[in-house]
Design brief:
By secondary structure, the chain is an all-beta fold. The strands form two sheets. The protein has a twelve-stranded antiparallel barrel with strand order 10-11-12-13-14-15-16-17-18-19-20-21. Strands 1, 2, 3, 4, 5, 6, 7, 8 and 9 form a nine-stranded antiparallel beta sheet that branches. The chain has one helix and 21 strands.
Amino acid sequence: MNGDQLTGQFERAVGGSVVFKSDMAGELTIGFDKIKELRSGSGKSEFAVLRKGAPLTKVPAPTGTLEFAAGNIVVTPAKGGAETVAAKDVAYVIDKTTYEKAIKHQAGPLQGWNGNATGGATLVRSTETGTTLTAALHLIRAIPLVPYLPARNRTLFNVAESYGKLSTPVIPQTVPASPPSVVKTNIFHADGERDEYFSPRLYALGETAFDHNFSQGLYLQQVYGGGVGWTPVKNAKQQLDVKADVHYEEQEFMQQAGTAYVPSLNLIGTTLAEAYHRNLPYKLVFTENGNYLPAWNDATAYSANATATLALPVYKRLSASFSTTDNYLNNPSPGYKKNSYQLITGINYALR
């Protein structure tokens, strides 16, 4: 680096570049080809060197203190002889503690979860009495637990509920008194997905989803399937996933509100989906996802849904959330509309 000498903390190396934290210059990312000499100092003094092409979970990596010179990294363990690895053959250099947690040991079932919880409420107390409650929970766990290592697997879980009840009295009241009319809204969604990665961008997936929508006469829709996913865009600012599956789907409808159900539909179909996440300026976060579910054995029994959310930071982990959701069901129960639209505002709490 033009003969400059920096003192600080060596953090890691990823993709041929070194991440170095200096008290004077802050965090710097420098290519191996620009470094003449490097020695790991105190603090995170032991590191693991992972070679290119080596399976991260099967091949033990050399660990110890580091010295870099003449295009080679020399790893000196606490016990045993030193090992030399050419810089061009290095995929990652990470501290030993992270290596032990992320690579050699499986995370426990409660470790590594990230996500957010959202809630909102509207109360009306007058001639009419109304209550609307919304709640959502979005969880994700990616293994390894550090973002700069290639993904091994990912688990996603989402649940959302929107419930409303409006009671309107009969005016003018009759004799004998007539009961008030009551209108209910109940829209529920839950899904889970497990991804197993073949490569940093390509993965197999298994999924299940459950939907109930009182506004469309849908008592329960169940989906069980598996497929593949691809991440064409992934960087510090944004990520885009596209997915396709083959699934079994059962739809059960209400004939009338609160009465018997029409015969359920048993469908074989495909889900075509995309999910997008972007970090915007001023710590704003935008997320969007859409799904289209055509059925192979019944061309009329298709559905689609899309959600877009903008979170505005308020205080620490709290943010204001503005979300819009549209659900389309081509074959609702007779008398119900095909489209169901929601605009939801609430308070969002980031779990991590």
